[in-house]
Amino acid sequence: xxxxxxxxxxxxxxxxxxxxxxxxxxxxxxxxxxxxxxxxxxxxxxxxxxxxxxxxxxxxxxxxxxxxxxx
Length: 71
Description:
The protein is mainly α. It has one domain. The protein is 79% helix and 0% strand. The chain is built from 3 helices and no strands. It has helices spanning 6-25, 32-44, 48-70. The chain starts with 5 loop residues before the first helix and ends with a helix. 4% of the residues are buried. The model has no long low-confidence stretch (mean pLDDT 95).
């Protein structure tokens, strides 16, 4: 797997900052777990495809927890 270059990582960080700002304008804030997930993407310099895959996995786990908690 190719890792992000310095320029790509800087662009991804800027995009995340813009997304956070947009979410905050809507009254939404990332959870600690979500923040940790995005920090890990930066630490690992993950390419966008791998980041997307992990976000999908994260969301699936969150839904499964909610289903089990409701039972």
